[in-house]
Amino acid sequence: MAVEYDGGVVIGADSRTTTGAYIANRVTDKLTRIHDKIYCCRSGSAADTQAIAEIVAYQLGFHSIELDEPPLVETAANLFRASCYRYREELTAGILVAGWDKRKGGQVYSVPIGGMLVRQPVSVGGSGSTYIYGFMDANYKPGMNKEQCMEITAAALSLAMERDGSSGGVVRLASISEEGVERRVILGNQLPKFSTH
Amino acid sequence: MEKHCTDSRVKGVSTGVSKPAPEYVSSKTINKVIQVHDRIFCCMAGSLADAQAVIKSAKFHLSFHSVQMESPPQVIAAASVLKDLCYKNKDELQAGFLTAGWDKKNGPQVYVVSLGGMLISQQVTIGGSGSTYIYGYVDAKYKPNMTKEECLQFATNALALAMGRDNVSGGVAHLVVITEKGVEHVVVPGDKLPKFHDE
After folding, report:
1. In chain A, N or C: fewer CB atoms in 10 Å?
2. Contacting residues of B for A194, CB less than 8 Å apart
3. Which Pfam families does UniProt cross-reference here (chain A) (predicted)?
4. Which residue in the set B133, B144, B197 is minimally distant from A134, CB to CB?
5. Considering only alpha carbons, which residue of chain B is nearest residue A134?
6. Is the CB of A163 less than 8 angstroms away from the CB of B197?
């Protein structure tokens, strides 16, 4: 998931990759760097999303050199959309593009399966996301600061990881702003706990 | 969904009914909270046709059982009757139930009978197509021993959130509060439900 705040974005993801019922990687890093201040959260087929992210990172890097400027988040998002829409029949990729640029500050763009592109202040994705739509609708308020965004992201991811069999492991968080990228990991035993019933 | 509060039970259901894909909402005002005995109610889920048929049979069995026992039935009795019907006919049926009520022996209780016929008791439970969207909210917000008003607010919020996200849930929210003293119905039309930040 990804959340905008005034001055940047917070992105977060779980760390589970499965092949059927086997957890192939329990410490996956689903927060992938596309450029210095542009990251993406990958969901769906790991193979598809890794391939697309590599291609987009190359295209964006080239574009940035031509421009002689850091690229826009909207540009990165459009590059993802272009690939995801053109090859929509062959791909299973749900991607959140988030980052910071000088023009519009912190931005979150959602490119779900099918290849739509939409900017949202908050976006969730992946199999565990269905369980936290209600939680996010109730608890997100516009105008939260960076720490609040981190907390709500960690809480939402914990809730989803508790309920979804395909989600779990650790919570990886990153915040992206003008200052740079700050990454954190929250281990299983340190996750927020909710009343068990 | 159903919740067990300090001395009462709050059940809540939203009212949309739809046919499977291509999706068509055949009614926006179905009441899915059915009274099977004085202090025992059931929420239907799954195929409404199946659920209605099962409940009709369960009501009869329960009433007969109550006459034989010469006392109001226990909540677990109602749940067990539903479970037997769902389990024995699991190949033909697609119906699940949330049973809640009050009885003298064990006070307020909530039972879930799932699609295949499993029966378990829980403090709080949710079901139906819209329930997937509120697992996180319910896990985060529920605390044991809430008061009746807190329970009602919690149930209303949860239903509103689910109805906001699920395309086949909606219409009207029916809530029922069951206590030793009696039964209270609360109906909240869609436009009077709590609104959240993006509405």
Report:
1. C
2. 139-140
3. Proteasome
4. B133
5. B134
6. no
User: Tokens standing for B92?
Assistant: 């033909």
- B197 belongs to a structural domain: no
Tell me if B72 is assigned to some domain.
yes
Above pLDDT 90, what percent of chain B? 59
Q: In this structure, which long-range contacts are made by residues B29-36, counting pairs with CB atoms below 8 Å and at least 24 apart in sequence?
A: B29/B171, B29/B172, B30/B171, B31/B174, B32/B174, B33/B174, B33/B176, B35/B183, B36/B62, B36/B78, B36/B99
Q: Is residue B198 part of a domain?
A: no
Instruction: Report domain A2-186's class.
Output: alpha beta
CA B43 to chain centre: 3
In A72-196, beta strands by DSSP E: 93-101, 105-111, 118-119, 122-123, 171-177, 180-186
ipTM for the assembly: 0.86
Task: Please report the pLDDT score of residue B129 as a whole number.
Answer: 85
Cβ contact B136–A156 (<8 Å): yes
For B48-71, write each residue's pLDDT tens digit.
899 999 999 999 999 999 999 999
